[in-house]
Amino acid sequence: MGHAFKHTFRTALALSVSLLATQAFAKSDITVAMQLEPPHLDPTSAAAQAIDSVVYTNVFEGLTRFMGDGAIVPGLAESWEISDDGTVYTFKLHDGVTFHDGTSMDAEDVKFSLDRARAEDSANAQKALFAGITDVEVVDPLTVKVTLSEPNGNFLFNMAWGDAVIVAPESIDNIKTNPIGTGAFKFSGWVQGDKIDLERNADYWGKQPALEKATFKFISDPTAAFAAVMAEDVDVFSGFPAPENLPQFEADPRFQVLVGSTEGETILSTNNKQPPFNDVRVRQALAHAIDRQAIVDGAMFGYGTPIGTHFAPHHPAYVDLTANSAYDPEKAKALLAEAGFADGFETTLHLPPPSYARRGGEIIAAQLAQVGIKAEITNVEWAQWLETVFRGKNFGLTIVSHTEPMDIGIYARPEYYFQYDNPAFQELMTTLNSTTDPEERTKLLGQAQTMISEDYVNGYLFQLAALSVAKAGVQGLWVNAPTAANDLTAVSWAE
Asked: Considering Cα of 208, then 209, then 213, then 217, what sign does the dihedral take?
């Protein structure tokens, strides 16, 4: 009996040692590469999507949050009640939540964050998300009451944006370089021009992530991106910039290629106030001069879905209006002649760095030349694009992907950079915002899509694909991108 016991004990010991060895060697860190480095790390005061790509749900959390399938679920708010008239939201917060510096997260922080975002001097890039809030009241440490001027069917959706995360007054002064949130990961360092390091938050209020450490590495050059993935220097490349290389990774068992959709409507953005684009016939001519599929094939190697309006094809309320912009160069020439431009005209085409813009721009310029429109290409860096095009409105045409989720509301802002001013559309958006019935909202969204498609506000090109390459063992990554994010909270390595 003693011998059997010893044998069993030895076997059990050997088993536990080997289990310990497995645990010790199970990979618990990850390196995620991205093309763009964030300008700073405060998602509540800049439009750069690279910020959210690092900190969304990892470092900072909001009252609600996006899941990878686009669903809106509770975040720091455990639950909520909505008044019968749809204007008062009472949020119940999770108990025991602390910020990374040890201070507690409570209703005062929610009030501070929402009041800061909607303040007159707010630097929030999406201030419109908070415009309907008239009052934020602290009921008790775990209850906050938000009052709206009118019902807003989008309110819980708006609160899931990275621009609406909860921050603390104690750490706000250094948030851009030392972000302190409530998320599953803490910021641990930033080597400018190279990488940002995160580490697991041992005091996290929710489910602990499998990963102990995460590094975001910045590699802007597509050739260098390919080399880094092939050499296995990085574990994931999010938003891989060279789609022509993807078949090579697909054929290599070391890797997995994730192809999903983003919220990015890629458009030939048109300055609606600048002649001759203030004439709808000229804008319609532009639409018919463009062969969308040729751009998807030529610039994106087939990745992307042609669109005919500013709305994501994967959204349940999407209306396929691509027929309004069918490729028809003869029709484009006839429309130009009718508008008094039988011999065509000259304009500018500003192209920011992403390959969809630089590569797509060359193809579009050649297509426009076929109907007599001479587009002079100017390649610009992002800072220059923001200054000249976005803020300065000094452009004829530009190509950009609008990656914000369901942002058709920008067409109701006449001061927005493409300067579309249509009171009927503005009224439609006001009605949509105050409508909560899902069927009615779908109907209104269909009308909105149709209106801007038939007004040819911009040249609608394609929905940007979400293209990532990862090592075969990585699991839990988002395939689609309902918002700009690399959510690592559910990512792990296969055993």
From this structure: negative
Contacts of 481 (CB under 8 A, 6+ apart): 260, 261, 262, 263, 264, 403, 466
CA pair distance 335, 455, nearest whole angstrom: 14
Contact 406, 157 (CB under 8 A): yes
User: For residue range 248-291, what is the model confidence (pLDDT) as tens digits?
Assistant: 999 999 999 999 999 999 999 999 999 999 999 999 999 999 99
The DSSP secondary structure of 26-60, one letter per residue, reads S--EEEEEESS--S-S-TTS---HHHHHHHBTTTB
Query: Which long-range CB contacts under 8 A does 132-135 form with residues at least 24 apart?
Result: 132/433
For the ranges 97-111, 310-324, 376-390, 401-415, the maximum mean pLDDT occurs at: 97-111
- Alpha-carbon distance 82 to 384, whole Å? 44
Q: Cα–chain-centroid distance for residue 301?
A: 22
Beta-ladder partners of 379: 351
Residue 240 CA, chain-centre distance (Å), reads: 15
Give the C-alpha separation, 258 to 470, whole Å. Answer: 8
Q: Containing H/E element for 158?
A: helix 155-158
Tokens of 471: 């090592």
Exposed e or buried b for every residue in 330-343, given b needs 16+ CB within 10 A? ebbbbbbeebebee
Which of these, 249, 229, 242, 295, lies nearest to 463 by C-alpha position?
295
Overall pTM surpassing 0.85 (yes/no): no
Taking a C-beta distance cutoff of 8 angstroms, is the pair 343, 390 a contact? no
